[in-house]
């Protein structure tokens, strides 16, 4: 068995529209922190100088959104109401684990321009690899967006899907659609420009809004899709972190190849 990391890091030194803050307490600072916490919460006095090298454990404090790094969007991210089921979209901690460990297929969209890719383009990509997704397969879109990772262009220069492309995959039974881009939709600037030019509301975040009518998850900000040795014949593990009431959860996405 071979594992290929498909995840992008959470990195406070990289550009993010919502900046990440990362504070590290060293093992020495952790000892002082531990001593203070024991005193405050348990009434226990303990001198950190009694520890080997006066050190205890390091501690990281991080402030970030659930959409930083590789993450899974839950149905509740797309809106407060759904037209399916009981009308209440699920949070990330309510999603079935079975969705997140399934056969995968990667589609090469690296030649797509910034904007929205339609169903015909996705069909062509599937035909090229000779594969038709089966129910619960995980489809990964290799757009090449990772070449801009860590810069502002990562958030403005990439290809997403339009509504027809999303519905094509959902009609096949796919429930998790992944991308190496910032969003499964086209960039904000592209969407707004097309809306202002046409007045057509269907161009406004169709990939996300499709989730108000059909239950599915997006797997965004993947990485290293070019490292996959074949377009299918592997499994994807992308279990989201169990955040109670969360609209998304971070994941360490991995391709599993039974070589």
From TrEMBL:
GO BP annotations listed: L-tryptophan catabolic process to kynurenine
Residue stretches spanning the membrane: none
Superkingdom of this protein's organism: Bacteria
Record's protein name: Kynurenine formamidase
MF-aspect GO terms: arylformamidase activity
SUPFAM superfamilies on file: Putative cyclase (SSF102198)
UniProt region (Disordered), positions on chain: 1-20
Pfam families membership: Cyclase
């Amino acid at each position: 068995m071979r594992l290929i990391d498909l995840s992008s890091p959470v990195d406070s030194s990289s550009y993010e529209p919502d900046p990440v803050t990362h504070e590290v307490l060293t093992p020495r600072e952790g000892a002082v922190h531990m001593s203070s916490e024991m005193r405050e919460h348990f009434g226990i006095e303990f001198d950190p100088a009694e520890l080997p090298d006066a050190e205890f454990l390091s501690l990281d404090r991080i402030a970030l959104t659930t959409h930083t790094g590789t993450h899974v969007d839950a149905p509740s991210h797309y809106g407060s109401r759904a037209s399916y089921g009981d009308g209440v979209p699920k949070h990330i901690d309510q999603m079935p684990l079975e969705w997140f460990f399934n056969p995968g297929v990667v589609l090469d969209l690296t030649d797509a321009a910034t904007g929205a890719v339609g169903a015909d383009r996705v069909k062509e990509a599937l035909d090229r690899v000779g594969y038709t997704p089966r129910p619960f397969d995980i489809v990964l879109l290799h757009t090449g967006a990772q070449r801009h990772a860590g810069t502002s262009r990562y958030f403005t220069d990439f290809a997403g899907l339009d509504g027809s492309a999303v519905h094509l995959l959902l009609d096949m039974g796919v429930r998790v659609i992944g991308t190496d881009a910032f969003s499964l939709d086209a960039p904000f600037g592209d969407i707004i420009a097309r809306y202002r030019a046409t007045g057509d509301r269907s161009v406004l975040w169709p990939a996300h809004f499709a989730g108000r009518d059909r239950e599915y998850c997006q797997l965004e900000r993947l990485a290293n899709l070019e490292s996959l040795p074949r377009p299918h014949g592997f499994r994807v593990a992308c279990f989201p972190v169990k955040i109670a009431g969360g609209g998304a959860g971070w994941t360490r996405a991995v391709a599993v190849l039974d070589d």
